[in-house]
Write a sequence for this structure.
């Protein structure tokens, strides 16, 4: 039995123009303006936020919307007893961080006034596309 990894692609085709623009704005705010810390670890990025009332639900909604266009990202959201929210982003399909890093760089540039890259403005395109591969194989087990 073989499990196929999801394609590494941000697929904007399932979002309306309005939803895509709103999600991009929310992403820039969340990733660049609202976070208190960004930590790069060996296998993932962690964004930390203060756990203000209602923020856990806001972050969960962002994760839900972001997973529509980026199903290959493994999202984990945790609230600690010391009132810190931690959002973990990991590339579940390939085990690397390059695509997530590219997204963070784009959000950084946009937050500093750079124009939105054309590929983010096209709802009919897939971004960061890589071929699907067989990630797991249980042959011979």
């Amino acid at each position: 039995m073989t499990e196929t990894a999801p394609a590494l692609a941000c697929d904007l085709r399932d979002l309306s123009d309005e939803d895509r623009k709103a999600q991009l704005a929310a992403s820039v705010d969340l990733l660049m303006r609202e976070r208190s810390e960004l930590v790069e670890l060996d296998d993932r990025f962690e964004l930390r936020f203060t756990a203000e009332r209602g923020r856990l639900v806001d972050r969960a909604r962002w994760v839900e919307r972001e997973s529509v266009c980026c199903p290959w990202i493994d999202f984990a959201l945790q609230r600690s007893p010391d009132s810190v929210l931690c959002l973990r982003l990991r590339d579940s399909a390939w085990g690397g961080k390059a695509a997530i890093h590219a997204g963070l760089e784009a959000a950084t540039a946009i937050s500093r006034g750079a124009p939105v890259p054309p590929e983010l403005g096209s709802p009919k395109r897939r971004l960061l596309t890589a071929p699907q591969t067989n990630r797991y194989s249980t042959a011979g087990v």
User: Anything to note?
Assistant: The chain has a mean pLDDT of 76. The radius of gyration is 16 Å. The chain has one domain: 15-116.
